[in-house]
């Protein structure tokens, strides 16, 4: 089996497709790197590039991406509703089949070291790559965002980076680099502009507010759509599925007299999490990959029918 | 591309797994035939075997299956809630990629001829294989079921079979053999034993009762579960999706104070129809195969990463 790692860097640019394309081009200039998905959001002013690569080349691909973002994105003038600390705001490595989390942690450290030393960008290692308990949680690293970090990084020893200078480069800000399990980034849009309703619904599902396990959630005001967005990370869909949060949001929205307009998945989701929707929301008994015609044909014809 | 045909024969036996296994064994005794799925239902007293084969060998595999059913199933003592006319009640050919419906019609005729002549079973060709307008609709062929056909086959010239004698073999009954597009067999269970509620809900979605296009629907009383089952064929999921009928059944059930317990998919469904559920029931904008991680990795690594 080919060992592969998935990287899902987030960049603080969602309005200029040329910049994002340049970053994607920098990634695929590395031999085995392949873009899986690019998702740009104007209101977040943020783009998520999902790519895979052989682990041996993932650090080089990541370095080229962050360097390109450092060249082309200017944090000093960045505005957007999503929390962020830098031009490449966050860069997670996710181990795929044939790779361990320890492997991914090593890649995160290696990339962090190069970004800190060669680009002079403060780097914070997070989640499985974190070197302190506090930095396991990305929200702690991002507290106060770019603007807050600008003030506190030199003064507060707790905010001293794992690599690079304890001084924020005005143009690029800082970068969080980590290793984590696959997560699902799932957003739901509501036909209201009422932030209080958004907060209430977000709190009803967010683990930190006593909601569902393995759900991080924020409510954003999306001006271009005149809607509230419930923006979620499902950090373990086997614990809390897309369908489960969707139903909860729907029932909470019903109570407050608002409707779900639509939803979106940022990046990619594992097949099983889509099967969960069939299972949970349509209550299909025992639904699995083997019930999908194309998949099942592949299974039975693999070896010998050709 | 390997040309493949899918066959989804339905047999009037759902209580004795050994009989169904013998039929499946008869199918795979043919070189390129592969079983995709076996679904047995005790209350319907019926089993659905989904298999694929190269077209050149599909008729032989089908003939062996029907012959085995003719040997092992006795219609004279068969009881079950699903309409049926014979031991192998219905045998559809579905053209897959690389095959046309005309090809499938030829296979149906060829199998019908062999079953009629060699086993002496009356065979009715249906849907795309039908030779009269009336027989395009399987329900017309199955009218009165096995018991009704027993009386009328010799007397009513309209019921004269396309192949085989105009006389019902008591043990095996008759068989409908046809060619059709892929359909989705989808059942929903309700926590009620009230047949009137079942009929009302079934009528609300059935095309013949003014419901959704491309939906055939019946309500059955499922004794072993003490539930009503809404049993559907979705003949074109691109016109009416699983999610759409599910939501309609749910809202009708709500009105009558009953709940959906669960649902089931008989046989297999195309990937796109599962994606439709994600799209329709979770309202995910632009959901497609390319949003599934495993699928997308296959797409980008196909040629050259290994």
- The CATH class of the largest domain in chain A is identified as Alpha Beta
Helix content of chain A: 25-40%
Which fold does the CATH topology of the largest domain in chain A refer to? Formiminotransferase-cyclodeaminase, Chain B, domain 1
Give the assembly state of these chains.
Answer: homodimer
**Unreliable sequence segments of chain A:** none
Give the overall pLDDT of chain A as a whole number. Answer: 94
Task: Please give the domain count of chain A.
Answer: 2
Give the CATH superfamily of the largest domain in chain A: Formiminotransferase, N-terminal subdomain
Radius of gyration of chain A, in angstroms, nearest whole number: 20 Å
Q: How would you characterize the largest beta sheet of chain A?
A: 7 strands, mixed
Write a structural description.
The structure is a homodimer of 306-residue chains. With 306 residues, chain A is of the alpha+beta class. The longest helix of chain A has 19 residues, at 101-119. Chain A is 35% helix and 23% strand. Chain A contains nine helices and eleven strands. At the A-B interface, β3, α7, β11, α8 and α9 of A face β3, α7, β11, α8 and α9 of B.
Please summarize what this structure is:
Two copies of one chain form a homodimer. Chain A has 306 residues and is an alpha+beta fold.
């Amino acid at each position: 089996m080919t060992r592969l790692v998935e990287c899902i860097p987030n960049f603080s640019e969602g309005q200029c497709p040329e910049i994002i394309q340049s970053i994607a081009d920098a990634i695929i200039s590395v031999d085995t790197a392949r873009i899986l998905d690019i998702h740009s959001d104007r209101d977040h002013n943020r783009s998520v590039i999902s790519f895979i690569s052989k682990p041996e080349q993932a650090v080089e691909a990541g370095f080229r991406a962050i360097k390109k973002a450092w060249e082309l994105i200017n944090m000093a003038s960045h505005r957007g509703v999503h929390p962020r600390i830098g031009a490449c705001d966050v860069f997670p490595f996710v181990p795929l089949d044939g790779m361990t989390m320890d492997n991914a942690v090593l890649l995160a450290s290696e990339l962090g070291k190069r970004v800190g030393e060669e680009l002079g960008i403060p780097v914070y290692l997070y989640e499985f790559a974190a070197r302190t308990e506090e930095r396991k949680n990305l929200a702690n690293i991002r507290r106060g965002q770019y603007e807050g970090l600008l003030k506190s990084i030199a003064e507060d020893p707790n905010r001293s980076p794992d690599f690079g200078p304890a001084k924020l480069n005005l143009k690029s800000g800082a970068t969080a680099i980590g290793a984590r399990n696959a997560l699902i980034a799932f957003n739901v849009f509501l036909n209201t502009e009422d932030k209080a309703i958004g907060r209430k619904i977000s709190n009803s599902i967010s683990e930190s507010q006593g909601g569902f396990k393995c759900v991080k959630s924020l409510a954003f005001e999306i001006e271009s759509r005149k809607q509230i967005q419930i923006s979620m990370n499902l950090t373990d869909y086997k614990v809390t599925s897309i369908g489960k949060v969707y139903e909860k949001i729907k029932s909470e929205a019903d109570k407050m007299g608002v409707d779900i307009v639509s939803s979106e998945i940022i990046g990619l989701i594992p097949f099983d999490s889509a099967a969960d929707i069939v299972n949970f929301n349509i209550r299909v008994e025992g639904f699995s990959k083997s019930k999908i015609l194309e998949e099942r044909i592949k299974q039975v014809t693999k070896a010998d029918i050709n």
